[in-house]
Prior knowledge:
Layout: H1 26-62, H2 71-94, H3 104-123, H4 131-162, H5 166-199, H6 205-247
Amino acid sequence: MSNPYQAPVNAENDSNQLNAGQEYSSAEISQLHRCRMGAGFLLAVVCLIIVAFICGAIAAGLQTNPSGNDPFLKVITGIGVLVAICSFIGNGLLLFSPERSGAKQLFVISFVLGILSNVGPLLVPFLSIDIGLNLLTAFIFGITPFVCLILFLTGWIRLANFIRSETVAAKMKRARTAFCVLLILPFAAFGLGTMLALSGANVPTALQFLIMGTTVIGTLVSGVIFTINYGNGLTFFRKAVTSISQDA
């Protein structure tokens, strides 16, 4: 005989368990909504950086002298503050991404390394270390932001695969590839120039301009490709999460 005071078995199912016919639990849908909000803040960061770049280009075109009363400098400074705030909030919301996606770990590592890369250089001058170790520490902190962004974009790819959005995954993969090219090109050009200089060969001026021009153009093109694909990836992710919520 059953106990009338016993709780039904179904009550043991919590919000983290999937019900029959469901692809995501209620907790995961809530977490995806937080990621959607984070994507909105990060999309705002992209727009603000573009506005700051345009303001900087206009200021450079007008040949204004940077001073405390320069309106362009005030605008760029204000945009920089907003970028920092939106970036911190957006990355913070991504820390609540679903465990099953495999993206949460990458977002956490990227977030922690990002904080260390910003705080670390401020602490190095106060540490009693020799010059060699100081240079090594500065180098490590210098490359950390690049590692963070690669891990960050890989996390987005995993999150896109979790929601089964091939479009978002493709956009983020292109953004990651463009960023890697953007990162490698200047070092490759610098290495090639150093090798030519050390070889003692008389490098023609035309070849020097060709190397420099290729590097600059390639870097700019890679930056544009990264920005477009990253921004579109965030936009399509927000739409995909909205669609998931409507189907749930």
